[in-house]
Specification:
Elements lengths: L14 E2 L6 E5 L1 H12 L8 H13 L2 E2 L4 H8 L4 H15 L2 E3 L2 H17 L9 E2 L1 E3 L1 H4 L17 H6 L5 H21 L6 H6 L6 H22 L2 H4 L2 H24 L4 H4 L3 H9 L2 H15 L7 H16 L2 E3 L2 H9 L2 H5 L2 E3 L2 H9 L2
Parallel strand pairs: 1-5, 2-3, 2-7, 7-8
Antiparallel strand pairs: 4-6
Helix pairs in contact: 1-4, 2-19, 3-16, 5-12, 10-16, 12-15, 15-16
Length: about 350
């Protein structure tokens, strides 16, 4: 049976949970690291052995799945020790099977359409049905289709290669499946120390993800400075400020495209302050993103880092669409204090031991 979602949001009906009846459980990187330590016999892993056994049990029983996100791949690229990356990647592969949540930008596109459908009482047919989860790094970053074989002139010759494969089509399928598995392993693990010099010569730069996050950090620092200059906003309508910036920075291009396709104008959507609030708050991932960002800006001493951007992005997708999320303590506190579990229908926890208890109650 598919997950029953609360009705307050404009849930995108075109996003499908093909994994049902599996429970989707999202773990932030710190908890993956803890499980990897338990799996490898690390001295800090003893207290996590019970959690590792529990998640392995539900994974092998086919009752829970632990999907990855684009954030995991970006954070993994920042770990410098190849051995540590490999240990974490092994556990990720075992429990996720390389299942990934769809790209956040695509998710936002579907939420915009659903929010406008509800606001205008219409039903758009602009988008096709899409699974919430895909397999591998491609769907996490908005790329679909898997590995394909191309000729020298760029033509897709996968089908012809399959039909003419010496050992037959089934052997080709097995070869391609193994090639995809090795590709996904390599992406998660990253290069060995011996590979780095050659990759550097070819332009490889593991800092690219953090460069993008750093630019977004600068935007938050700029907002923080403005709030320092006008402190009444931190005490008052801070959420309106954050919400307006979210629409302007994160959604504007997608929103303009959608409005144009529907032959609307901006005033049709933002006719009043209340309408603007309803629009932003009706999108599940937007609500989570705005809630976490608003809480961060309440604290004038907050020091923004790229990891803050990674965490907020990941949670904005995982909290509304997974059955359970295990994250760090502060984010857990913010989400629970703002009643997010009741709004999204998601169990939100800060400890692996809490996850074990929840799994036992399934």
């Amino acid at each position: 049976m598919a997950r029953q979602q609360p009705q307050a949001y404009a849930w995108p009906s075109l996003l499908h949970r093909q994994e049902a009846p599996l429970r989707l459980v999202y773990l932030d990187l710190n908890h993956w690291i803890s499980l990897a330590k338990a799996a490898t016999g690390h001295r800090d892993g003893d207290r996590r052995k019970g959690a590792l056994e529990a998640v392995r049990d539900v994974s092998s029983a086919g009752t829970a799945l632990f999907p990855l996100s684009a954030t995991h791949y970006m954070e993994m690229s920042g770990i410098q020790d190849p051995r540590q990356r490999a240990d974490i990647a092994d556990v990720m592969e075992e429990l996720s099977g390389f299942t990934t949540l769809i790209n956040r930008t695509i998710l936002m596109r579907y939420e915009i359409e659903a929010a406008l459908d509800e606001m205008l009482g219409s039903a758009s047919t602009r988008l096709d049905p899409l699974p919430l989860c895909g397999r591998g790094v491609g769907p996490a970053f908005g790329v679909h289709g898997g590995l394909r074989i191309k000729s020298k002139d760029g033509r897709d010759v996968t089908d012809s290669a399959r039909s003419s494969w010496l050992q037959g089509p089934e052997a080709f399928d097995a070869w391609l499946s193994e090639a995809e598995r090795q590709f996904e392993r390599g992406i998660l693990r990253g290069p060995s120390d011996a590979d780095v010099p050659v990759l550097n010569l070819r332009g490889w730069d593991p800092r690219v993800a953090r460069v993008g996050a750093k630019k977004r950090v600068e935007q938050e620092i700029e907002l923080s400075a403005r709030l320092d200059a006008e402190p009444q906003w931190r005490r008052g309508r801070l959420r309106d400020v954050v919400s307006g910036r979210y629409v302007a920075i994160e959604l504007l291009d997608l929103l303009n495209e959608t409005i144009t396709d529907r032959k609307l104008v901006t005033a049709d959507i933002f006719a009043s302050r209340e309408a603007a609030r309803r629009f932003a708050d009706s999108m599940p991932s937007a609500d989570v993103h705005i809630t976490l960002t608003t809480a961060a800006h309440r604290n004038r001493d907050k020091q923004w880092e790229p990891n803050d951007i990674f965490d907020i992005d990941a949670l904005s997708s995982a909290v509304p669409y997974c059955d359970a999320v295990v994250t760090e303590r502060h984010a857990c506190h913010v989400l629970q204090s703002t009643k997010m579990p009741a709004k999204t229908g998601t169990k939100i926890m800060a400890r692996l031991q809490d996850l074990v208890s929840w799994l036992d109650s399934m």
